[in-house]
Write a structure and sequence with these properties.
alpha+beta; six-stranded mixed beta sheet; about 25% helix; about 30% strand; disordered N terminus
Length: about 190
């Protein structure tokens, strides 16, 4: 039984102190009052999100070879509506968030999130985090599966996730909100 399943059965709602008290080798998140603990990403997962960050930071975060105007941040801690979420990557348009907060977390919902699936996180990403992102008005979400070698992009429309693009294997990725550039999906795999 996973740590998430055990902690979900407790009668009390998880607090931020539970996040702070989590073992350092675990990623701690709270969704709907339940504490979820996941191990740090395995190498295939870590390579995928590091590589994706590498594709996006230059053109969007720094404005090199692209339009700029974004903050692209790896594993930010989000405090949204009582939930504490840690997406693999998140992005904010600088027009909405001109500067970075002074806190160790972000209370403004991002404009884009990306979750990199692993066998241990896939269900949590899809069934618990995805609805939380929709509830908070995150405009775009990408789901990357390094084992299946896929990227599925979604846009929030009327409170629901609508597909906005899909790539497999070495197909080009050029999906909202980052359609100003293209890169081959296989650049995310080792």
């Amino acid at each position: 039984m996973s740590a998430s399943a055990v902690l979900r059965r407790t009668a009390r709602r998880a607090t931020y102190q539970d996040v702070l008290d989590a073992p350092p080798h675990m990623v701690a998140e709270i969704v709907d009052g339940a504490l979820h603990l996941q191990p740090r990403p395995a190498p295939l997962h870590a390579v995928a999100y590091s590589s994706l960050a590498g594709e996006l930071v230059g053109p969007f975060h720094k404005g090199r070879g692209g339009p700029g105007g974004w903050w692209i941040i790896a594993e930010p801690e989000l405090h949204l509506g009582g939930d504490v979420l840690v997406p693999d990557l998140a992005g904010w348009r600088r027009e909405r968030m001109p500067g970075l907060p002074d806190t160790a977390y972000f209370s403004l919902a991002p404009d884009w999130v990306c979750e990199i699936h692993s066998p241990s996180t896939r269900k949590f990403d899809l069934e618990e985090k995805r609805p939380a992102y929709a509830r908070e008005g995150v405009g775009h979400m990408w789901l990357v599966d390094p084992l299946a070698r896929t990227l599925d992009a979604f846009a929030l429309e009327d409170g629901r996730w609508a597909p906005s693009g899909s790539a497999r294997n070495d197909e080009p990725v050029s999906f909202p909100p980052f359609e100003a550039i293209a890169f081959p999906l296989d650049s995310l795999w080792p």
